Amino acid sequence: MTISPRDAGLKLLREHALIAGEVVTGAARIAVDDPATGEIIGHIPDLGVAETQKAIAAAVEAFPDWSRSDPHKRAAFLREWARLIDENTEGLGALMALENGKPFEEAKGEVAYANGFIKWFAGQAERLIGETQDSPLGHVILTFREAVGPCALITPWNFPAAMLTRKLGPAFAAGCTAVVKPASQTPFTALALAELAYQAGLPKGALSVITGDAATIGGALTSSPDIRKLSFTGSTPVGRKLAEQSAPTLKRVSMELGGAAPLIVFADADLDLAVAETIKGKFRNSGQTCVCPNRVYVEASVADEYATKLAAEVAKIPVGAAFEPGVKVGPLIEDKALDKVEDHLKRVRAAGGKVLTGGARHERGGRFFQPTVTLGGDDTLFREEETFGPLIPVFPFETEDEVLTKANDSEFGLASYLFTRDLDRAFRIGRRIEAGMCGVNTGLISTAVAPFGGVKSSGYGKEGSIHGIDEYVDIKAVTLALK
Ligand code: NAP
Predict the structure, then answer these.
(1) Do the beta carbons of residue 15 and residue 187 sit within 8 Å?
(2) For residue 441, what pLDDT is reported?
(3) Is 176 an active-site residue?
């Protein structure tokens, strides 16, 4: 009998937390809804300090064996986990679509993207390579890359699978154990992935997933001297707070925080390509991504042409609920998110910006917003705040220096994008732009093999690539005095 994708998703939904692989239900429960309808799809336990400490204790207990295990064995575990994720792509994608609202096809794409990190870091586990060096003291120095220790991993709702595997892949490859706190709006994907990790043979205690009040759980994790590493993906204000809380115990910290990405189009660019890539970059997850273009700058001589083409394409984007065929843009995660898009739209209009398409909540109501393009007005707001919704404000510019100054005049520095056919300019701007990542003639920059991370208030640390595992290892030097 075939079941609908929605039912395949619901089959993987678990209304519990996991401490050391054991199911924990808890008395008080937090409701999780489908952003497309507001309908409650399930509940998670509201756990607190005691349960978090239990999870930390389990991670501590599991750490010696796991960290000293053969890295090839950990690689084999990661590959088996990846195989199970591949096998469950439909169910995981559907579960994610239900709790996050992103289109089902896009959600399945995220499952594949997320799994890319597990597959990549399986290989990295086999490459925990040390060095040897002759010392000027006449000794030989050997270096070993050793697991940092039990880790706390806190993830956001916008990529419920990928933000987790980008941390767990390298953590497990390095030999770390982990306590995960997923976002309360999208906990079920993390719980389903954790269940598959245990099915794949993860030792008990190596992973716990704790749900409940974020500040309480975050406080217990950051104050614990047993947690040696915190990796956080989320908003800059929360990241700052967690970094402060982690300071007394001198934890290693990685921060993947907010952005306000500039996208720059020069007059010599292929405008059709620029339009298509702007749309790809912007509308994933309905514009709720940390790397999506927040402000588009177009050289004045082609600004009208680019904006008109962009608006014509954006007007065609199908908006709807996750399982409706052909849908490309879904609802926003919560009502507050629509208020923010409306506020940004009001402010860009007040500053003289014209709406070329969209410009209001979607006629189907609920949390749907029309994909929107504006032209003109003031860009200050968009340098300072991410809209996190389906609004593209386009601003004309005159010179390269002017646009680079504007692009860099932001406290954030995560992603950036550049469209030009001039190779010199691509290198010049690519090097001078203050961002952790720059896409040249593309709106898609994230894969497991690319170093992902920001500068300035967008955080520090790298995820993915050959660097991602460095966040989870300490380098130990053993000096041998050989006769
Ligand atoms: P958020 O409010 O900062 O929440 C992120 C996570 O932190 C959630 O699990 C949340 O739990 C938890 N949290 C909130 N307050 C906490 C506290 N006081 N102590 C410990 N944990 C706490 O961010 P969000 O709204 O979910 O995510 C959107 C933000 O993430 C955007 O700014 C986006 O740019 C950024 N982001 C960055 C990247 C990147 O790689 N740089 C990737 C994706 C998203 P609850 O859900 O229970 O509140």
Answers:
(1) no
(2) 98
(3) no
**If you take atom 12 of ligand 1, which residue's CA is the nearest one?**
214
Tell me the best of 163, 251, 257, 387 to mutate to test the pocket of ligand 1, counting ligand atoms within 8 Å of each CB and taking the most. Answer: 257
Please name the residue ranges forming H helices in 230-334: 236-246, 271-283, 300-314
* Pick from 388, 321, 282: nearest CA to 100: 321
Chain-centroid distance of CA 458 in Å reads 12
Q: What is the pLDDT of residue 219?
A: 98
- What pLDDT was estimated at residue 28? 82
Q: Can you give the length of the chain in residues? A: 483
Separation of CA 146 and ligand 1 centre (Å): 29
pTM of the predicted model as reported, rounded to 2 decimal places: 0.98
Integer angstrom CA distances of residue 356 from 305, 380, 413, 449: 12, 20, 28, 37
Q: Which residue's CA is the nearest one to ligand 1's atom 23?
A: 234
The 8-class DSSP code of residue 248 comes to T
Quick one: pLDDT at residue 1?
A: 67
290 labelled catalytic: yes
- Distance in Å from the first CA to the final CA of the chain: 72
What is the C-alpha to C-alpha distance for residues 122 and 140, in angstroms, rounded to an integer?
Answer: 30
Between CA 341 and CA 360 the distance in angstroms is 9
- Region of 192 on the Ramachandran plot (φ > 0 left; ψ -120 to 50 alpha; else beta): alpha
Low-confidence ranges of the chain (pLDDT < 50): none
